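Handoff note, outgoing to incoming analyst
You'll be picking up this chain. Sequence as last confirmed:
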Amino acid sequence: MSLIKPFMLLSWLLLLTISPYALAAQIQVTVDRNPVNLNDSFQVIFTAKEDPDDDPDFSPLEQDFSILHQNQASSSSWVNGQTSKTIQWTLNVMAKSAGNLEIPAIHFGDDVTSPVPVQVLQDSKQGGATSNEELFLKVEATPTDAYIQAQIIYTLRVYTRVDIARAQLSEPELADAVIEKLGDDSNYNTQVNGVSYSVTERKYAVFPQKSGKLTIKPLVLTAEVLTISRSIYNSFFNSQMAKAKRVESQAVTLDVKPAPATASGQHWLPAEQLELKQEWSGDITQMKVGEPLTRTLSIQAKGVTVGQLPELNASKIDGSVKTYPDQPVLKENKTSNGLTAFKEEKIALIPSQAGQITLPAINIPWFNTQSQQMETAHIPETVLTAAAGADMPAPPVTTTPAPSSQAEKTQAPAPVVLTQASPANYWPWVALGLGLVWLATLGYFLSRKAVDKVLPDEASLAREIRLKDVVNRLKKACAANDATAAKSALLAWGQLQFKATSLGAVATFCEARLRDEILLLNQALYGKDAHEWEGKRLFQTFTENQARAKLAGKEDSPLEPLYRL
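Most recent structure output, in case you need it:
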């Protein structure tokens, strides 16, 4: 008893010491945009998973920011017997000055948030509007001097200080480029020349496929501007009227540079970041003959489309290993900062004999658009060790009979006793034989039905094999700039996919860029002004077309109008 009391006292003291920290609510602070322009409003969001100690005190914010509006919302959910709660405070704020500011620590009673840095820019590009403009557009591209196939962020902003309806906005157009919309539109308030405007911001990722001077055409917005018509008799009968308005943005010119000489002869992959990984489903040093081991290779790149990612399981593997690759997993993540592409390839390896198996190293060259340098993502050579499985048959053991003695040789053989089976003993054997014949017949008919069911899958497998062969033929033809062989491969692909029998017919089933490349091939083969044909762009657009077809079922719903009615 004398030992228990001091121990309990010590436990209580420890609990009193750690309880304030253990019970403190964790409050996360985020901003919807960073950096922001001076005179642009933005949101500061405080999120807690449990009730904090007290109501928040936002007064420290007012030193550097004006609080325009604030609200609070909470939600609860019940999943698998577990209750979760989220409380959120959203503040609309505007910075009072430019510079590197900070969302200060905010007290929720005894609970305190961490400071969050915010960069506020002195916007010097706002001078394009006069104070009497009700509606105007601004566009910009970053950077304007990118490399071919590198990502360019194209930003559109719609400024309005009136109510509009039935708005229609054109999409950016560039003939030799892939253009993807990024994320959802964002909305905020700002001031231009002392006039308050509501701003809707939309971003696109542009991947130019041709070097030189390229111009993105002006965007056009048509809308009905709503105005109030006042009655001369009574202001109660004021009515709302609409007038049509059409505004255009400026054109944007891009100076697209060709791939640098250091990338000659290599797969051209410009990206902001790139990560290459390898994982195994088991221990590569303790493989068993006849048992599968799965290798997973994945690549994730920022600032590229999924169609630009290279094949990972391209190297040849030792013939003592059977390989069974899965279909690759392709994903694209679109945020306001740009595209991030992901590709995962799995391959099952089954060794057929014991020993060591060497898998060659994997090298993915890529161009870092941040450092402007060529880099190489690398997975070193991998050595697998396979041992004989536990169920492998042991080698046969041969024995030499011991020499017999002379007495054994001369010994008379034992007499053979013949027994005659009774007539009734053969009937069970006859019945067993008839039963086996019946089972064999039943098995035959069942197997025929199973074969009939499997035939469609076998036909599908055969078609996949033919498609893979056709794609390989097209790849080789494009690499060799062999227009005739490329035509033959495309016709075979079109026949398998669409029952099309001419290049023109195949082109009608393809997306715009691939359609254009097929028509260029057709012109190179049959046009009056025949010219030397290069197949690199055709196969690249073909690969992107295939990748997008796989992603088609996962695409988001069509874009909503810029303004809802």
